[in-house]
Amino acid sequence: MIRSFKFRLYPTRAQEARLVEILDRCRELYNAAIEQRSDAWRRCGKSLSAYDQNRELKTLDGYGGLKRVAEQVVARVHRAFAAFFRRVKSGGAPGYPRFKNAARYRSFETDVGIRADAAALSVCRMRIRWKAWALVPPRDAIRCLRVIREADGWFAVLVCDMEPEPLQPTGAAVGIDVGLLTLVATSDGEKIAPAKHLVRAAKKLARAQRRVSRRRKGSRRRRKAVASLAKHHQRVARSRAHFLHGISKKLVAENDVIAAEDIVPMVSAGGRGAKGHGFRRAIQDASWGILFSQIAYKAESAGRTFVRVDPRGTSQECSACGHKQQKTLQERTHRCAACGLVLDRDVNAAHVILNRALRALRGGDGLSGAPTNREQAHVHDGWPIHSS
């Protein structure tokens, strides 16, 4: 399985200057590659490929020792155009690849010349100190390296091919329902309130944003204000990720099967209506997608099964008898008119999600995405479909 490890780098001034130079070179190449593709199509009606552009790299000056870094830049341009054509074909917003300035191009990649130990990382003929918070993967496991410049320094992300570390089976399965009033409600009856990191930091962010607005564009003081604003946003993102890591780790450690609803239709519906902007912002603060991505990779590493099911009607269906009755958003308690079940609305929805997942894993229907053979192997026949 593919895992990523992120470490903070501590370059010297000379090394940092070299990293900035590499970023500038990569950005210039990225913009030139986009311009070349656009001109070739506009003037000759020809679509250039990554292979065509890679053949010209050896004719360019200033990329000595950075061959693989430059090829990764071309690959990034190719992915940007592939995504553009895919969106056009599907009828979505096209979003033609655009040029990047220094503020928007903040990383480069390579897959050669990487050597790492507990003290330092060797890349692009530089040995840069770092703080290894985890066991450094062996050299043959490292697939590529991404060097990122963030608001508070430089970071290295090692993408590695690692062996799974299965946990002992627990024989338990859980369904989780996500929301805005209750971030996570489980079929075990546990409810976790949203931390609202963005709301708590709103005043500081507003002050930092006003400070940016008052500074003259292009001035040194504006650059400092922008850097301060970026650090505030970074703290919010890291606090949110840390909070969600605790939830995902607990769910994976205690359950063999974790069932959740597919949130894509819910997020895409957030832009409709007058309250669309506020709804989208609340969803982004809750960060269900980050939570589900954390559960997914942790479940894969631990040998667990993570299942996504169709979210439609989960809050309207009774988990005991399957009877469906309409509820308004103000109704927070499920009261079934058919069987008399009385249960918290979100907990009932979590039970419905778990029921759908277990039925799908046994019969192959009801999944948002069909489980793989590996996932099927983790399903225990002894699990009953929940009935309250």
Describe the structure.
44% of the residues lie in helices and 18% in strands. With 388 residues, the protein is of the alpha+beta class. It has 2 domains: 2-161, no CATH class; 173-377, no CATH class. The strands form 3 sheets. It has a 7-stranded antiparallel sheet. Strands 10-9-8-11-12 form a 5-stranded mixed sheet. Mean pLDDT is 86; it is low at 265-274 and 366-388.
Blueprint of the fold:
Layout: E1 2-10, H1 13-44, H2 50-55, H3 67-90, E2 107-110, E3 115-116, E4 120-123, E5 126-131, E6 142-150, E7 153-161, E8 173-178, E9 184-186, E10 191-192, H4 197-200, H5 202-214, H6 220-254, E11 257-261, H7 264-268, H8 276-286, H9 288-302, E12 305-309, E13 333-335, E14 342-344, H10 345-363, H11 373-377
Parallel strand pairs: 8-11, 11-12
Antiparallel strand pairs: 1-5, 1-7, 2-6, 3-4, 4-5, 6-7, 8-9, 9-10, 13-14
Helix pairs in contact: 1-3, 5-6, 6-9
